[in-house]
UniProtKB/TrEMBL annotation:
It comes from Ancylobacter defluvii. InterPro entries: GAF, GAF-like_dom_sf, PEP-util_enz_mobile_dom, PEP-utilizing_PTS_enzyme, PEP_util_C, Phosphohistidine_dom_sf, PTS_EI-like, PTS_EIN. This is phosphoenolpyruvate--protein phosphotransferase. One of its GO terms (biological process) is phosphoenolpyruvate-dependent sugar phosphotransferase system. Keywords: Cytoplasm, Kinase, Magnesium, Metal-binding, Phosphotransferase system, Sugar transport, Transferase, Transport. The gene is ptsP. Its cofactor is Mg(2+). Residues 32-178 form the GAF domain.
Length: 763
């Protein structure tokens, strides 16, 4: 169209706002998917006074297919296909950035396709079709004239691409595709992360903090939408300022740094101006927030700097906060009724948040973060929920309701799985059920190794739903009952009578078998929702567990009193967590003695016997073992925290959690030191950390002297089956010289694996 040479494009139909309204009308028409796309490209071309408008859709095989065009040869539709590393269209898709050229054919990335007839068009403007930062396709306009497209024109085309993204993501175009060439928006995904909790879960996605679904993107009243953006931003800024001024927020620390980052972003004029500009193109306030954040996310997903990637999460959160302001849901995500077979998907979450859900409906958990020894993972194992972590950008790759499979054994996640993959996993579930039947058959078989050494296996528990596992497995008892879980799922602090009822139920379920109750281990990442959180620089090393109990003796006394009353006429075993010095145990035991005196004075029944011990999980106790074992009745080793503190590696930080192997000589020698001291003093010691729940690690523990282990219910069968086939003398003879030898060995893991393979030991 020579008459347009050298002039900025001007709208033939009244600008982008009119275009968006016309698009809304087309989207509402009862026409086929192809007819809808054909009408859309005609509208865009006419509105932007372009001779060509084309829509390319990213396919499951990673190529881009021409789905609709106005101006190019119509016969090329669904025939023109290019790789994502090919041509200008491929560059736009790959980089997720607009490309504007006055002479496209001179660009080194230009790829000529004769079937399209585009050789006569020189100027080129391509924008990515984005949703949640993920590229779904490319929208292109072209003109014969050598001309430059304005910023306003680029912005208008990006806004239009947002509408196309919703069409592609809806799955409407799938019917137009050949098998194996469907749009990538709904493609099956095979993702690999870290296995956190064993099991296989088949179900549908439930987003823990669901994105606000923007249902109306086209504005009716642009000035009103601008006012809504301004008001929402002002409210957001004020809420962040209030949080920062709260006396409960520490003056320094990670939490404050996050809020300060939020405040910085919320006051960034560039961010606000981009949203206002998006509204000016005809979007609603919500649509503008989503458009700007999707563009930002697309750029940041392609960055390798971990700091900048972390800021992406901050911006995601800020955008969600703003959307909640705009939609009237500023109080946070709504609790929804879970579907059957729910798979919870989250960036990360607290143990309390997981316990908020109806656990009978949860089949799996998928996290962007997560660590094998985090408290969230421990709770997931206790609930027998398959869990996988370290799945990058999983929140942006799925939609609520998507079919999903979680393999907590291999660490694999299948999103929208093909029928054949689903069939394979259905068989896997059946096979696991068969294995569980085989383990169940071992229920009444004593746990004795092939060379006659008895191993006492107990269960870790913390909820009433755990109690039936005692009878199901034939366990010797409960080696660790985490009392804090009751407090974490309650909406208010449980009264003494409520605690009393739970503790009695636990002892009743044990039916005479020993139960070890751990007093409240709160703090760190276990925050009670009804208690004000204390912000600390290093919460794992801070005010938690016994430290909190001794500083707030009323809290500890009320729990001890409930435990003593619940054990009326029965044995009570009680341990204190996070003890770092002998005098802390002395103070805690004194509280128990005071409560016993109180109960006697008021005529209450007393336990038949009270045994008091400590959790050995702070390395300082390794140098106080003789003095400690003279005072305590028994001990339990918390290997999760002990290894964390031993290596100064935060178990909740995925960057360092797996950096040090618990089967390395330093960790095993520390654990052996405890076992040897217990034997010298004639005291029982149980290892109740997650090490005991993995057959290979349980093998190592037995080799260094542990004869009592407490493990998760799901691990009971595999660990027991391993011990029944084990020659303990042989593995002990292997381990001893490796631990005491002069040669440096980074880990005993390969040696133990080789032993298991050679002897046919089931792991």
């Amino acid at each position: 169209m020579p008459g347009f040479q050298g002039r900025p494009m001007r709208s033939a139909l009244g600008g982008p706002r009119v275009l968006l309204r016309r698009l809304r009308e087309v989207m509402a028409e009862p026409v086929s998917a192809q007819d809808r796309l054909d009408k859309i490209v005609v509208l865009i071309a006419a509105n932007m006074v372009a001779e060509v408008c084309s829509v390319y859709v990213l396919r499951v095989d990673g190529t881009l297919e021409l789905y609709a065009t106005e101006g190019l040869n119509r016969s090329a539709v669904h025939l023109t296909v290019m790789r994502i590393d090919e041509g200008l269209v491929g560059t736009v898709a790959r980089e997720a950035e607009p490309i504007s050229l006055s002479n496209a054919q001179a660009h080194p990335a230009f790829s000529y396709r004769p079937e399209t007839g585009e050789e006569i068009y020189h100027s080129f403007l391509g924008v990515p079709i984005l949703r949640a930062g993920n590229t779904l396709g490319v929208l292109v306009v072209q003109n014969r004239a050598h001309r430059s497209y304005t910023e306003e024109e680029i912005e208008a085309l990006q806004t239009t691409a947002m509408v196309l993204a919703e069409i592609i993501a809806s799955g409407e175009l799938t019917a137009l595709a050949l098998p194996g060439a469907e749009p990538a928006a709904r493609r099956p995904l095979h993702l690999t992360g870290s296995a956190l909790s064993e099991g296989i879960g088949l179900g549908h996605v439930v987003l823990h903090e669901p994105r606000i679904e923007v249902t109306k993107v086209i504005a009716d009243d642009v000035p009103a939408e601008l006012d809504r953006v301004d008001h929402a931003v002002q409210t957001l800024r004020a809420s962040i300022d209030i949080m920062l001024e709260d006396e409960g927020v520490a003056r320094v620390g990670e939490h404050r740094e996050i809020l300060e980052a939020y405040r910085m972003f919320a006051h960034d004029r560039g961010w606000i101006n981009r949203m206002r500009e998006a509204v000016m193109t005809g979007l609603t306030a919500e649509g503008a927030v989503e458009r700007v954040q999707s563009d930002t996310r697309a750029r940041m997903l392609r960055m390798t700097d971990p700091y900048l990637r972390e800021r992406m999460h901050d911006l995601d959160d800020l955008a969600n906060r703003l959307l909640r302001q705009l939609t009237g849901r500023a109080g946070g995500p709504e609790k929804m009724a879970l579907p059957d077979n729910a798979i919870i998907v989250a960036r990360n979450m607290s143990p309390a948040a997981l316990l908020d859900y109806d656990r009978t409906r949860i089949r799996g958990l998928v996290l962007e973060e997560g660590a094998a020894t985090s408290h969230l993972t421990i709770v997931a194992r206790a609930l027998n929920i398959a869990a996988v972590g370290h799945i990058e950008n999983i929140v942006g790759l799925v939609d609520a309701g998507d079919p999903i499979i979680v393999d907590g054994v291999s660490g694999e996640v299948h999103v929208r799985p093909p029928t054949d993959v689903e069939g394979v996993y259905v068989e896997k579930v059946r096979f696991r059920a068969k294995r569980l039947e085989q383990y169940a058959a071992l229920r009444d078989v004593p746990t004795v190794t092939k060379d006659g050494v008895a191993i006492d296996l107990h269960l870790n528990a913390g909820l009433l739903v755990d109690l039936p596992h005692i009878d199901e497995t034939g366990a010797s008892g409960i080696g660790l009952f985490r009392t804090e879980l009751q407090f974490m799922i309650a909406s208010a602090f449980p009264r003494t009578n409520e605690q009393l009822k739970l503790y009695r139920a636990v002892l009743d379920a044990a039916d005479g078998r020993p139960v070890v109750f751990r007093t409240l281990d709160i703090g760190g990442d276990k925050v009670l929702p009804y208690m004000r959180a204390i912000e600390e620089e290093n919460p794992a090393l801070g005010w938690r567990a016994i430290r909190l109990g001794l500083d707030r003796p009323g809290l500890l006394r009320s729990q001890v009193r409930a435990l003593l009353r619940a054990a009326n006429g029965r044995e009570l075993r009680l341990i204190f967590p996070m003890v770092a010095a002998v005098e802390e145990f002395d103070k805690a035991r004194h509280i128990v003695e005071r409560e016993l005196t109180h109960l006697r004075r008021h005529g209450h029944g007393l336990p038949e016997r009270v045994l008091v011990g400590v959790m050995l999980e702070v390395p300082s106790l390794l140098f106080q073992l003789d003095a400690l074992f003279e005072r305590i009745d028994f001990a339990s080793v918390g290997s999760n925290d002990l290894v964390q503190f031993l290596f100064a590696a935060d178990r909740g930080n995925p960057r360092v959690a797996d950096r040090f192997d618990p089967l390395s000589p330093p960790a095993l020698n520390a654990l052996k030191t405890i076992a040897d001291a217990a034997e010298r003093h004639g005291k029982q010691v149980t290892l109740c950390g997650e090490l005991a729940s993995r057959p290979l690690e349980a093998l190592a523990l037995a080799a260094i002297g542990y004869r009592k282990l407490s493990l998760s219910p799901a691990s009971y069968g595999p660990v027991k089956a391993m011990f029944l086939d084990l020659d303990l003398g042989a593995v002990s003879a292997l381990v001893k010289p490796l631990l005491n030898g002069e040669a440096y060995i980074p880990s005993l893991r390969p040696h133990l694996k080789a032993f298991a393979e050679t002897t046919g030991l089931p792991l």
